[in-house]
Design goal:
The protein is α/β, with parallel strands linked by helices. The chain has one domain: 3-Layer(aba) Sandwich (Leucine Aminopeptidase, subunit E, domain 1). It contains 5 helices and 6 strands. Bound molecules: ligand AR6. Ligand AR6 binds next to β2 and α1. This is Macro domain-containing protein.
Length: 170
């Protein structure tokens, strides 16, 4: 079955979907950007599950390109899927790690039985990835993914991000 890609201008914490993806960091203990917004709006239950993951399986931290799910707390979603994007650098091509964030998040979504998944533009904020390239990798990877997710909704925070994704989806 094919996955529908949609683009929405807005805030990922307001999306009524099965799963929202968090552009987290390997500590899983919160940060700025999307991560800060999700923990603020979702409440303490998310952080509590993140801490438990850090005390167990991910005592070394969640690796870049990997994904793991927790409750969505008070968000209008069922789960948060935390993934760690690569920081952008001119020294090394880390595109494969960014693609892995999308693939692994969809794999976790399939395990959960999630049918609708909202993604932010992973790595394209604090981690410095050029938006045009981040959008290309996001759209190409989701299009190529083998997944039972029916709708992937990219949530773009500003007009420039929306336009970059729109150029890829056209
Ligand atoms: N909804 C949707 N998109 C948003 C929101 C929101 N509420 N807030 C920001 N964006 P970023 P990264 C956009 O920085 O680059 C954190 O500290 C933002 O404009 O959230 O992967 C983590 O803990 C940008 O286009 O994630 C890590 O340390 C995109 O979401 C680090 O930042 C991603 O920006 C991860 O950096």
């Amino acid at each position: 079955m094919s996955t529908t890609l949609t683009l929405t201008r807005g805030d990922i914490t307001e999306q009524a979907v099965d799963a929202v993806v968090n552009a987290a960091n390997s500590t899983l203990l919160g940060g700025g950007g999307v991560d800060g917004a999700i923990h603020r709006r979702g409440g303490p239950d998310i952080l509590e599950e993140c801490r438990a993951l850090r005390d167990g399986t991910y005592f070394r931290g969640l690796p870049t390109g990997a994904a793991v799910a927790t409750t969505a707390g008070r968000l209008p979603a069922r789960w948060v899927i935390h993934t760690v994007g690569p920081r952008f650098t001119h020294q090394e091509d880390r595109s494969e790690l960014l693609a892995s964030c999308y693939r692994e998040s969809l794999r976790v979504a399939d395990e959960l039985g999630a049918r609708t998944v909202a993604f932010p533009a992973i790595s394209a904020g604090i981690y410095g990835w050029p938006m045009e390239d981040a959008a290309r990798i996001a759209v190409e990877t989701v299009r190529a993914a083998q997944t039972s997710v029916e709708e992937v909704r990219f949530i773009l925070f500003d007009e420039a991000a929306y336009e970059a994704f729109a150029r890829q989806v056209r």
